[in-house]
Amino acid sequence: MSSSSLDLAFWYLGRGTGVVSLVLLTLVVALGIATRSGRPLPGLPRFAVAAVHRNAGLLAVVLLVLHVGTLLLDPVAQLRLLDLVLPFVGSYRPLWLGLGTLGLDMMVALIVTSLLRARIGVRAWRAVHWLAYAAWPVALLHSLGTGTDAGTPWLRAIAAGCLALVAAAVAWRTSTGFSDATGGRRGIGVPAAPHRRPDVLR
Q1: Helices and strands per DSSP (H, E), number in the chain
Q2: Is residue 34 part of a domain?
Q3: 187 in a structural domain
């Protein structure tokens, strides 16, 4: 494979993994909002919802690692290791790139605290775990503001679909039907009982 073909492969892989990771993170956040109280979704048993939530989160992390790794190897992107740690210091679109760095830092914090959940305790783990909800809008803005696909109709359509899914989850969670089914409104900010399994994005 020639150097130009390899560069093109990194370019496409970096773009694709970033977009799919955003879609999966959207699914994780929407499921987390809609089922925070442990209530299953209509037509799906509770274990199936939990499995989709967990596996989508793990796959989103894997694709995020591929997204970052391919962009580091892509000579066109010209990313530095520092750009992956400190937000808003990059030379290319520093604001939008910095949002991506911020989202990456949040995801790293989620992974590390999930691995150390038994040591730091459930309360501290849950406090950091709320970063999953903060990382989603940051990732959405990053995808819309940087890269060669920023502003294209297909990417805007995907972003609009992601936004609609999360909005629908919030509407379902705050609806009267949800409150009646769960025996009273609990609100999005009230944590559910801790799970025994320390999943990365649960």
Answers
A1: 8, 0
A2: yes
A3: no
